[in-house]
Design goal:
The chain has 117 residues and is mostly beta strands. The protein has one domain. It has one helix and eight strands. It has a six-stranded antiparallel beta barrel with strand order 2-3-7-5-6-8. A hairpin with a 6-residue loop joins strand 2 and strand 3.
Length: 117
């Protein structure tokens, strides 16, 4: 079982070392969404600041480094990768989770990702 760190967003200086800016494609949509990604971090806040949305992400059974889905609720998360924070809500279209993958990390583009697929 992976362990996660738990933080309250009232202390952004504690979170800054975990933050990465990312672009995430959801359900193969053409346009990725921008997000802040916090690997292995749970947010304890009941509410996020206005205009911010948080979601828990899952990794696959075989690769703990890559996001494979995003959950609609913040309950218990099996294969917990971490938390993402977005400026826009994600449309889950009535599902509990959506498939997702990162197409850009803060330090550059992942060479294994084809932007067109």
């Amino acid at each position: 079982m992976a362990q996660g760190l738990a933080y309250n967003t009232q202390y952004p200086e504690l979170l800054s070392s975990y933050r990465q800016n990312v672009r995430i494609r959801i359900n193969r949509r053409k346009k990725p969404i921008k997000a802040e990604a916090y690997e292995s971090v749970y947010f304890l806040d009941e509410k996020m600041p206005d205009g911010k949305y948080r979601y828990y992400c899952r990794h696959s059974e075989n690769d703990w480094d890559k996001i494979v889905s995003i959950k609609a609720n913040l309950g218990l998360t099996v294969n917990f990768w971490g938390t993402i924070v977005t400026n826009e809500p994600i449309n889950f279209r009535g599902k509990d989770e959506v498939s997702a993958r990162v197409v850009w990390w803060q330090d550059g583009i992942d060479d294994n990702i084809n932007e067109e697929d």
